[in-house]
Amino acid sequence: MKEEFKLKKPINxxxxxxxxxxRWAKKRLLPRTAGHKEGCKRIVExxxxxxxxxxxxxxxYAFSTENWNRPKSEIDFLFRYLKEFFDDYIQEFIDTKVRVxxxxxxxxxxxxxxxxxxxxxELTKDCDQLVFNICLNYGSQQEIVKAAKEIAQDxxxxxxxxxxxxxxxxNSYLYSKDLPKVDLMIRTSGEERLSNFILYQVAYAExxxxxxxxxxxxxxxxxECLKEYETRDRRYGKIEE
Length: 241
Ligand code: IPE
Ligand code: IPE
Ligand code: MG
Known about the structure:
alpha/beta, about 15% strand, six-stranded parallel beta sheet, binds 3-methylbut-3-enyl trihydrogen diphosphate, binds magnesium ion
């Protein structure tokens, strides 16, 4: 019998760049949307498994500020499907105490999708087993600039003393303000770049890149990434004693 995987040390926060849906579909001569559909199934599996492992927060990059450059038909599909996804899984999130949370500017998303997501956030706001943080119309540079503007405004209004501005207080102006520090960032599909994802938040995260396309990213693939993470020595600038 397969031995159950357990983390050697607790992990608070894992961030995923879910990539490769389109290539997964192309390889099978299917439309790109088929890759997004299959990819959505992996999302719940990842959430369930991370919860079982005791991970506190899962951040998923689902739609970047640059993804608006895709064909309208693909964008429309993605947001329609996202709405269906939350309609299908909201009850499970409530039952298993998963809190839904977002990062990014939702105002540009279709109204019915936003309504469903806001409802999911509201219905799960007291859930405390795992935070499911989904990034939609998210860009890290935009997030940092937005923070800088708010800081300037607070300074102007006399609400912020410049001596009080440090990496922690700066963090409190970001979408991720109440989340634990990112321990591990995983990107699927073989690309090794951040694509405007949580630049500030990954300052001391470990990065694991896997060639697997997101729709093929099952429990075993995640276990391989976690095993790789566990080989890393997180020194934070210190040296061995
Ligand atoms: C990731 O898969 C999903 C989104 C960015 C929405 P892609 O759609 O980027 O798939 P590839 O990279 O084209 O294979
Ligand atoms: C990053 O993937 C964005 C998401 C996963 C939502 P992309 O496929 O859009 O990134 P690039 O274009 O390869 O950098
Ligand atoms: Mg891609």
